[in-house]
Amino acid sequence: MPTHGAAAGKTRSRGCFITFEGIDGAGKSSQIAAVVALLRARGIDVDQSREPGGTPLGERLRELLLHEPMHLETEAMLMFAARREHLAARIEPALAAGRWVVCDRFSDATFAYQVGGRGLAREKFEALEAWVHPGLQPDLTLLFDLPPDIAAGRVASTGVDPDRFEREQRDFFERVRGAYLERARQAPQRIRVIDANRPPEVIRTEIERIVAEALSA
Predict the structure, then answer these.
(1) C-alpha distances in Å from residue 204, one per residue of 104, 119, 141, 192
(2) What CATH number should be reported for the domain holding residue 126?
(3) Residue 183 is part of which domain span?
(4) 72: in domain
(5) 184 part of a folded domain
(6) Which stretch of DSSP H or E encloses residue 20?
């Protein structure tokens, strides 16, 4: 399993950081639960979390981010503010203690949604990323790739009131999807693209194989 890139002092006893990414409706949630159950069945201590969120402050910021209109740069900085708290309070202590962290979204999502979808200047994203978590990236990212029209149908079928991101138009999600795939091309060893337009049990089998590779590395 790859280590945390340039993170100083990284050792084999340090925990593994796995993230799940994809546009809204790509089907991450049930697969996250399956991976967490698989790891725990193998005797691994797992901390499951999400972004934005993961801490009391992060969850309060999540509510603002999902429901309050705001300037794009405010949005990006709040995303990274919640992430900094999440890293300090949960992710970094868990990894240092040897626990695995499985997280629904991380900085790849900010690149996809704020840079790709909304048009945030790339250099501003890169500056925030370098400030908030220099040298730390997930060990493994599972990117659920799905055409936006199919994803939108899945979101609509839930009957849940959409948040302000889910209410965006199809062209927004096309840009988000494109940014995700660009990010995957930039980091092919870390980001594994999953075809999410398949039956859940087929996807689960593929994910279990990928996670098994991580366990044996």
Answers:
(1) 16, 33, 15, 14
(2) 3.40.50.300
(3) 17-215
(4) yes
(5) yes
(6) strand 17-22
Q: How far apart are CA 177 and CA 155, in angstroms?
A: 16
Number of domains in the chain: 1
Residue 47 forms beta bridges with which residues? Answer: 101
Does residue 11 lie within any of the structural domains? Answer: no
- Consult the annotation and say whether 58 binds a ligand: no
Predicted confidence (pLDDT) per residue in 168-206, tens digit: 999 999 999 999 999 999 999 999 999 999 999 999 999
CA dihedral of 175, 176, 181, 182, whole degrees rounded to 10: 70
User: Alpha-carbon distance 128 to 83, whole Å?
Assistant: 11
- Is 159 within any annotated ligand binding site? no
The candidate with the shortest Cα–Cα distance to 61, out of 79, 88, 42, is 79
Check whether 29 is labelled as a binding-site residue: yes
C-alpha dist (Å) from residue 189 to 107, 111, 116, 139? 16, 18, 21, 9
Is 24 marked as a binding-site residue? yes
51-63: burial string, b at 16+ Cβ within 10 Å, e else: bbbbbeebeebbe
22 is in an annotated binding site: yes
Question: Which token pair is 4?
Answer: 């945390």
> 143 in helix, strand or coil?
strand
- pLDDT confidence of residue 178: 98
Domain membership of residue 164 (yes or no) is: yes
The reply, when asked if residue 10 is annotated as ligand binding, is: no
